[in-house]
Amino acid sequence: MGLTLFRFKFILILLVIIILLLFCSIGILKVLNFHRGGLRLINNCVSFKSSLLKGHTQLPKIETCQKSDFIRDLWLGRWTRYGKNDGCQISNDGRYRCLAPDFPCQSPWCSGSLGLLESNGWVYSSHCSFRLFSADSAWNCLKNRWIFFWGDSNHVDTIRNMLNFVLDLPQIPSVPRRFDMNFSNPNDASQNVRITSIFNGHWNETLNYEGFNSLADEGFRNLLKKYFSEDTLPDTIIMNSGLHDGVHWRNLRSYTAGADYAASFWKEVMDSVRQRGLAVPHIFYRTTVATGGYARTLQFNPNKMEVYNWVALEKFRQAGLVTGVIDDFDMTFPWHFDNRCNDGVHYGRGPAKMKWRDGEIGHQYFVDLMLAHVLLNAMCSK
Ligand SMILES: *[C@@H]1O[C@H](CO)[C@@H](O)[C@H](O)[C@H]1NC(C)=O
Ligand SMILES: *[C@@H]1O[C@H](CO)[C@@H](O)[C@H](O)[C@H]1NC(C)=O
After folding, report:
1. If you measure from the C-alpha of residue 255 to the centroid of ligand 2, how many angstroms do you get, rounded to a whole number?
2. What angle (nearest 5°) sits at the alpha carbon of residue 240, between those of residues 109 and 264?
3. Start-end of H helices in the chain
4. Angle 366-380/153-161 helices, nearest 10 degrees?
């Protein structure tokens, strides 16, 4: 009997609380302010509501990335959107110029011009947010520098996108898997940058699926060493591994040994630079992409590659090689469920108004263009 009464009271109190909360949320109590008690209730209700709201909408305090922000291994970023053009059409050249080129970034999610990202309003940020570079600011950062890339074919796309979209060189239709070239600013011939890129999917640039095992070839090792044996050296190395390794190394134990060897190879190269009294290049490890759509189930599936990424990074860190990390796995992951932003294994294929893998015309290339800006942030921040 006593227990039933207790239960009844409990349910009654619960009901009153639920009704009060309901009133709070729909603001009905506003019409009940006929005396002081009601007024106090409304005040309490309003302050309760606003503290609830505050709890939910408190923005993380993020600021523009500094050099030290790239030390962090794991990024837990997000893509946010605050511009949208519903009527946006693909151009004949395959590009999506949805927002005005000067459409501004919104603080704190990025700084610079969001329109240039051709993402119809999307932008990526992590524990810090990124600056989107204009051609002038990118050239001012890269002038007189030598950037050395070592990695898979995603580098090939990213480099071309950086040249086409950011560095104002749209006439360069592609770059090869292996090259060493000087580029100059079309608006200021005194500004030059040297970019070298060596594919590591295989020691033979026309073949695939060796990954770190490409270092088993002496000719390939010598090719790499050559760039670090002269008086002038690259100032920055951006390296990755991944998709090809996913095919070659059948299990974690064998991959760990491969990553160990790759780390010891690069350590030897850097030690020789140090012994000659020269400045050792800054090395950024860029994690590999999350493969998308149909490619999610292949040998380089994201579950496997995420683990391989961290093993490689750990080995390179232990060898004292890593200046910073760029977590492209985190950047690509939200877009890997279908092929809208990738062809399975590349996020930066050149824009084209043609049938894409998913049957639609054209594809989105902004995820890789975002990476190009993130690389610039890593190379240029103080
Ligand atoms: C690029 O420029 C550097 C220095 O100006 C020079 O040493 C190098 O040979 C050039 N590379 C090519 C491929 O022209
Ligand atoms: C690279 O592979 C291709 C295709 O198998 C072959 O024709 C070529 O001779 C190889 N190049 C080298 C340098 O081994």
Report:
1. 25
2. 135
3. 2-26, 36-57, 135-142, 153-161, 218-226, 243-248, 252-275, 302-318, 328-332, 366-380
4. 80
**Cβ of 204 less than 6 Å from ligand 2:** yes
Contact 74, 327 (CB under 8 A): yes
Q: What is the DSSP letter of 166?
A: I
Confidence band, pLDDT 50/70/90 cuts, at residue 19: low
Residue 12, pLDDT above cutoff 80: no
Question: Rounded to whole angstroms, how far apart are CA atoms 299 and 311?
Answer: 17
Distance CA 105, CA 98 (A): 14
What is the mean pLDDT of the segment spanning 364-370? 98
Sign of CA dihedral 183, 188, 189, 194: negative
How many angstroms separate the CA atoms of 35 and 318, rounded?
71
User: Do 289 and 334 meet the contact criterion of CB atoms below 8 Å apart?
Assistant: no
Q: Is 178 in the pocket of ligand 1 (CB under 6 A)?
A: no
Residue positions counted in the chain: 382
Query: Three-class SS of residue 184?
Result: strand
Specify the pLDDT at position 11: 74
pLDDT the model gives residue 30:
43
Q: What are phi and psi of 6, to 5 degrees?
A: -60, -45
pLDDT in tens, 195-209: 999 999 999 999 999
Q: Which ligand is nearest to the CA of 230?
A: 1
Q: Which positions ≥6 away from 302 have C-beta within 8 Å?
A: 290, 291, 296, 329, 333, 336
Among the bound ligands, name the one nearest to the CA of residue 204. 2
Domain ranges in the chain are 19-58, 67-76+134-380
> Is residue 27 over pLDDT 60?
no
**Mean pLDDT across the chain, nearest whole number?**
91
Cα-to-centroid distance, 203 and ligand 2 (Å): 10
CATH architecture for the domain at 67-76+134-380: 3-Layer(aba) Sandwich (3.40)
Q: Are 170 and 258 in contact (CB under 8 A)?
A: no
**Which pTM value belongs to this model?**
0.86
pLDDT (0 to 100) of residue 345: 98
Residue 370 has pLDDT above 80, yes or no: yes
